[in-house]
Amino acid sequence: MNMDTSLQKQKAETLLSLHTNGKLLILPNIWDPIGARVLEVKGYPAVATGSAAVSASLGYDDGEKIKRSTHISILSRIAKSVDVPVTADIESGYAKTLSDLEETILQVLDSGVVGINFEDSINDGKSLRLIDEQCERISKIREVSDRQGIHLVINARVDSFLSSAISAPREKMEDAVVRAKAYSDAGADCIYPIGPGDIETVKELRARIASPINIFGTANATPLPLLQEIGINRVSFGSNIFRSCLKKFLDIADALHDMKGYECFGENTMSGAATKAYLRQETE
Hints:
By secondary structure, this protein is α/β, with parallel strands linked by helices. The chain has helices spanning 5-17, 33-41, 51-57, 68-81, 98-111, 131-147, 169-186, 199-208, 224-230, 240-257, 272-276; strands spanning 25-27, 47-48, 86-89, 115-118, 121-122, 127-128, 153-158, 190-193, 214-216, 234-236.
C-alpha cells in the first residue's frame, strides 16, 4: 500500500470517532487537492469528496462515467495532499460483481482514503438494489477492509427518497428505515438517507435509526445548529459547492464576453500570495 498502514489505520479510527463524539461532522464536498487543503487549513477534521463534482471537474457527468482508474488517481492526489482523514464518494463501487467490488476497495485503500460513500441505486437512480444484494456488497467491503487491517468507514447511502420505483412518501420513509437497519447490520458505520432535509423528516429518521446519520445539506435543509441539536452526526453537500463555484465562473465568463469590465472578479479576489498558503511549494 502507498500510505503507511499504521498511519492509515489511525486516520480511519479518527474518522470513525468523528461520527460519535457528539459534534456534527460538517463535510463540504471537494473535488481536488486545493479544496482539501483549504478545508484542512480552516480546521476541518476530515475531508470528503463528491463523485459528481469530481466527474464534472473532468468534463463528465456523474454515474461512473469516468474510468475507475481516473477516479482513483484523483482520490490518491487528494488523500496525499492533506494529513486529515479523507472519505470518498465511490458511487456503486464501479462494480457489477463482488470480485470487481473487492478490487475497487483494494484500490481505494491503496489511494490512502479511509472512508467511502456507497450507494444502492441502479439504473440511473430509477430503482434500488435488493436489500439482500446490497447487504452482501456492504459485507464484502467490510471483509476486504478488515483483511487489510483498516476499518474503512462505510457511509451507506439509502436512496429510497430519490427512487422513482417508490411513489408514496410514507413508503419511502419505511423503506429507508428498513434499509438503514439492514445496512448497519451488514457492516455500515453511518447511514445516508439522501433526500428531504426538512426538520420533520430528519427528526423521524433520527428517532427510528440507531446508527449515525448523514444528512444532505441543501439551501432548504434543516439548519446546521438544529441538525446537531436533533442528534444528527454528519452533513455533506454533494455537488452543491462545486455548482456554486461553477455559477461564479459562468457569471465571470458572461461579464467578460459582454465586455462589462473587471468588476465581475469582485473585491475579494484572492491574491497570488494568499493562494500559495494552500499550495505545496515542492516539486511533484
